[in-house]
Amino acid sequence: MNKYICEFIGTFALVFFGCATVLFMRQEVGLVGVAFAFGLSVVAMAYAVGPVSGAHLNPAVSLGFLVSGRLGSGDFVGYVIAQCAGAIVSAGVLYLIAAGKAGGYDVAASGFAQNGWSTYSATSAFVFELVATFLFVTVILNSTAPGGAGALAGLAIGLTLVAIHLAGIAVSGSSVNPARALGPALFAGSAALSQLWLYILAPCLGAAAAGLLQRNRAIGLEGAAQPA
């Protein structure tokens, strides 16, 4: 149970710090600040809860671990439930904070840090989310594997997320995380919910591909280690 509590807390923190920056400080810090808010949140949680749960904080990451053979199906279900619950509760807390704004907070006019596409097409957003998640999960799987980045894994993963946000916020809102997309969408309304499918399907496909690549790599290394 401790693993699931850690995933809940870690995902709560990721959504809280990242989406709070979008909601309350975007004009002050800009898109670069938003990118670092999400990335640094991952770094912090990697070292805070990583020793217990691995700090997936993301159903797509957990799927990558499942496909690679490094996470059991029971833990996968528990992780996803905890991550989605953490994201939803975090979004609820942010909604409560936003409601206290002087003059009120108009979600319809200002949005609620939800992911979405408008300037670029749905195809562009889908391709970005798929490719970015594939690269993100590849970094995570390899940096946390035996012989990987070791104590620096959390930093490598967080900085990769910063790079992803810098590259794709304008294209898709840069989610690469179904739980992060789900929480704010539930409070943002029907328009965000109608686009939510993309932020579930594309990251999961990218993560599954990364997990399959890692699994095949591990099998290849194991075979190479066998005596002739």
TrEMBL record:
<feature type="transmembrane region" description="Helical">
    <location>
        <begin position="76"/>
        <end position="97"/>
    </location>
</feature>
<keyword id="KW-0812">Transmembrane</keyword>
<feature type="transmembrane region" description="Helical">
    <location>
        <begin position="31"/>
        <end position="55"/>
    </location>
</feature>
<protein>
    <submittedName>
        <fullName>Aquaporin</fullName>
    </submittedName>
</protein>
<dbReference type="Pfam" id="PF00230">
    <property type="entry name" value="MIP"/>
</dbReference>
<dbReference type="InterPro" id="IPR022357">
    <property type="entry name" value="MIP_CS"/>
</dbReference>
<feature type="transmembrane region" description="Helical">
    <location>
        <begin position="117"/>
        <end position="141"/>
    </location>
</feature>
<feature type="transmembrane region" description="Helical">
    <location>
        <begin position="196"/>
        <end position="213"/>
    </location>
</feature>
<feature type="transmembrane region" description="Helical">
    <location>
        <begin position="153"/>
        <end position="176"/>
    </location>
</feature>
<keyword id="KW-0472">Membrane</keyword>
<keyword id="KW-1133">Transmembrane helix</keyword>
<dbReference type="InterPro" id="IPR034294">
    <property type="entry name" value="Aquaporin_transptr"/>
</dbReference>
<dbReference type="GO" id="GO:0015267">
    <property type="term" value="F:channel activity"/>
</dbReference>
<dbReference type="GO" id="GO:0016020">
    <property type="term" value="C:membrane"/>
</dbReference>
<dbReference type="InterPro" id="IPR023271">
    <property type="entry name" value="Aquaporin-like"/>
</dbReference>
<comment type="similarity">
    <text>Belongs to the MIP/aquaporin (TC 1.A.8) family.</text>
</comment>
<keyword id="KW-0813">Transport</keyword>
<feature type="transmembrane region" description="Helical">
    <location>
        <begin position="7"/>
        <end position="25"/>
    </location>
</feature>
<dbReference type="InterPro" id="IPR000425">
    <property type="entry name" value="MIP"/>
</dbReference>
